[in-house]
Amino acid sequence: MYSEKWRRELAIAATVSGAVILLRMIGLLQLLELSALDLLFRLRIAEKIDERIVIIGINESDLKKIGKWPLPDKIMAELLRKVKQQQPRVIGLDIYRDLPVEPGYKELVQVFKSTPNLIGIQKVVGNGRERSIDPPPVLAQLGQISANDFPWDVDGKIRRGFLYLRGNKGETVFSFGFKIAWMYLEKEGITPKMKAGKLQKIASFLCENIGGKKISEEICRQATVASNIQLGKALFTPFSANDGGYVGAADEGYQILLNYRGKQGTFRRISLTDVLENKIEPTRMRDRIILIGSTAKSLKDYLLTPYSSGLIDIPEPMAGVEIHANLISQIVSAALEERGLLNTLSEPLEWLWILGWAAIGTNLSNQWKDKQGFVRISLVNTTSRVLLWSGSLFAISYIAFLASWWIPMLPPLLTLVIASLVKTRLILWENLKLSYKEIEEYSHTLEKKVEERTQELKQKNEQLEIALQQLKAAQKQMIAQEKLAFLGTLTAGIAHEIRNPLNFVKNFATISGELTEELREEIEKQAENIEPESLDYIKEIFAELKDSIVQIEKQGDRIEGIVANMMLHSQKESGQRESTNINTILNEAVQLAYHSYRAKTDSCDIIIEENYDDSLENLVVIPQDVSRAFVNIINNAFYAVNAKKKAKNGDFTPQVSVTTRDKGKRVAISIRDNGDGIPSEIQEKIFHPFFTTKPPGEGTGLGLSLAFEIIVLQHQGEIKIDSIPESHTEFTIFLPKNSESGNTASREE
Fold first, then answer.
1. How confident is the model over 648-663, as pLDDT tens digits?
2. Among 13, 199, 299, 677, whose CB has the most other CB atoms within 10 angstroms?
3. Is pTM beyond 0.90 here?
4. Helices (H), 320-409
5. What 8-state DSSP symbol labels residue 690?
6. What b-and-e string marks burial along 434-457, b requiring 16 or more CB atoms within 10 Å of the CB?
7. Residue of 426, 368, 415, 407 lying closest to 389 (CA atoms)
8. Closest to 330 measured CA to CA, from 259, 254, 264, 253
9. Model confidence over 134-178: pLDDT tens digits?
């Protein structure tokens, strides 16, 4: 018995964990896992300020005072000279300088040549509308350049940094942060050393033993390249495409996970004006890393980080120069102080971790057996256990993160909850089968009792009235007993379901109808032995009973239809935002709503006018959701004109028109009908959930509520209503052209 139980629980754990791992491998959980990582960053207490790094930020007041951007070469040269006077260890110029900005270019060139500890930047990786940007020519000749690039995640956030990457000509280009950290650590006697990992050692052994006969020298060289970098006390390992919660991430170059020190403002800042006007102490920059970059919001050198998301606060991006400061601080602190680098588990260990939590989930049901052999479940205790273990999972993940380990949190949570639900559902299913078995046995008992009552009618005509009363009493008693027995055995198991008890009611109604019909046939056989008045009375009772059963079945079907309709409206799955032709979506929505309404209505002679603005550019929206909102509004228009036609006995021509227009920064979509209009006193209520003016059974009141959620809340749009009673109703939907918050362009604007 126990071995069977363990086999079943192991099968549940393996199936659930396998399904979650599959979802994870195809990338459906990637964004959620990255969001969980962001949450851990935000919950962690910010570390103390790294005094080794000072940022000279060019803010809005600096731009206003200088009155020009980019900074003229003369001002840049003066700034660098004043910084040099304080004898910093390394100067990082996080400003593109591939072209002269007169006046003062020759002066700036001389400063570049006389500053060996100055590092400039170039953009190596061009993507989308952005191109690669060349470094300052003088610094390129001196070998004092680096790459300013960061690898972007699918949600546009920066969670990784480069140590080096390949240039356009195949050369190795060190990143801005790594090169500055390297120069700083050289003064401490620390230089990078390449070390082979386990896979490289195995590859080297195989290549040496095979001798290159079956494996080319180039393949051997690539396979045996050392992948780990030893820098002081720190050992850096390269990021791979599936580390942590990533799935198929771009892992070109040598990348590491960024371990931020805190949110924006973690490093010391000095304004450009304060440096130029000598308002800082003479030793403020001595022997430190000085980063020069823009911090003005108008220059748009801001990127999203794990700290850019919040449940309450508005997302706040971080200046690019401060992200570089975090990478530099991470490298230097790890090399000198053994500050933890963000580590991840290997995939096999992650799978075992997920499987383990699935196994825990299968054992969280609080259950026991009653006298009838039914397994009872305490939903309250089971839920409490799931919540307790979920909290434990979060605590373990958070403590591990404090120790610089990023372990999966969302997949184990899913397996924990799903495995517990599957185990509970399995127990309920077994209880349901036992209940159906009892019902079947009770049905046979009921048939025997009906036969006994029928026999008494045959033998004792004179006691017919008494027998009928006994039969009624017996039927009431049996129905009450059956309800009590059924509810008693299923209360703990299926109280939260709707369809199962509904199916039971419908099935019982069918059985009662069959039993009633059998009883009627038996009585008709004995009709000659029954007085005519009594026989008529019995038939009248049977007719009323049959009508009642028909009404039970009819109302059951109606409840089932309402539940199905509500489930249809409550769907929350959303697709991905994509560039979409709004005219195409609107046309498809019109056709879908028309054919759907036509299938449900006898006559659907509605005149549809469509006027689309062909000059509209594509909008970045979730097409499935926007189409659903259009269909709901168009359905209401069809209903309104059809209702008006019925009210006027056909002396009315239904018309519905749809129009799209360009409104500058927004696109306007109008849906107009010539129905009875919407009274002004209820116009503010029509978007409330479950509010409807339709007769019972014809609507759930969720259509316009869902449309409002999609247009206004999900796509930051607007819905306006223009309605005149007995004249028309016009819904005007406004969608912004830059509604996709996740793309790079909208973030920079």
1. 887 888 999 999 999 9
2. 13
3. no
4. 320-337, 347-361, 379-402
5. T
6. bbeeebeeeeeebeeebeebbeeb
7. 415
8. 259
9. 999 999 999 999 999 999 999 999 999 999 999 888 889 999 999
